[in-house]
Amino acid sequence: MTMQTPVILVSGTLGCGKTTYVRTLVRDNPGVRFGVVVNEFGEVGVDGDLLSPYVPDIVEIRNGCICCVTQDQLVPAVREVSTRYAVDVIVIETSGAADSTPVARQISLLAPVVSLRAHIVIGDCTLAADEATRDRSYCNALASAGIIALSKSDIADTARISGWRAFAASFNPRALLLDIRQCEATLATLLSSSRAEADGDAPSAHAAHGYVSVSRTVGDMTERQLRSLSERIGAKVLRMKGIVRVDGQWSEIQRVRTRLTIEPYEGRPPREGRLVFISRELFKLSLQRLVKESLAASVVGDDPLMPAPGYRATGGNG
Ligand SMILES: Nc1nc2c(ncn2[C@@H]2O[C@H](COP(=O)(O)OP(=O)(O)O)[C@@H](O)[C@H]2O)c(=O)[nH]1
Ligand SMILES: [Mg+2]
């Protein structure tokens, strides 16, 4: 008889901590063989590389959100992970714009081979709950979540954390409300819970989320150039991430809103550095121009003797 492979669905806004959560979950459960399906807007993926040192079995779905544009790729991806790799648990990380309701519905098409066991929606406590929840897709995800996990309580102010707690308790009282660090440690609890309330009748997401993404390959940069780039692209770019050689060391670049972090990259060095930029307020053309100008100005502005990094467009999609 075929065993049902449990699926954990993880969603939440851009930069809320989905990949960080998946990485910790996998790292803290070394006896469990995980398969991961990770979805990104752009045609150039970053999360797959960030997860690859920990998860051998990853399928990336790029070029659009799995709740709408790339929905038809989800079932084949989950089937591939569950059959080809014979994993114990499948984790699906949606893009930051996804409405997880249609995603859950797609997963149900694969019953009884896989079954959605936990639906975790992350709330980023560095954002005010009422700001984060202006997005309808995200609200749909929160409404159907079995678990609402609050991230970044270590750096958020207490008023925002209490705001999130109050919001989550009233908006979806059925959901289990946890600090994300509690979820990381409790795989057995996640899998034994029946808190995967995929509401099949909820309205599906609109076809376009209004996000645009642009990817660039980049040459070596200094930390100063990167910080200058981060400042120049401004607040209209909600998210920047990538893997770049910074001051001679391959680094994981993360910028959520205007908060930039540069950490050593632990995976296999890529052939070339790359950065992905995501915005919701700008047209694609404007984002392309902003990125191009900011990259050029950051490098030239920092050191006139240094040639501009050899960046070139690698596309990206809305
Ligand atoms: N301080 C803190 N930072 C976090 C936490 N979760 C995620 N981050 C940081 O937030 C940034 C975006 O995280 P990531 O997991 O890539 O977000 P995703 O876009 O939702 O997958 C990274 O710099 C993470 O290190 C958390 O609980 N606390
Ligand atoms: Mg991610």
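^ guanosine-5'-diphosphate complex. The chain has eleven helices and 13 strands. Residues 18-19, 47, 93 surround magnesium ion (ligand 2) (CB under 6 Å).
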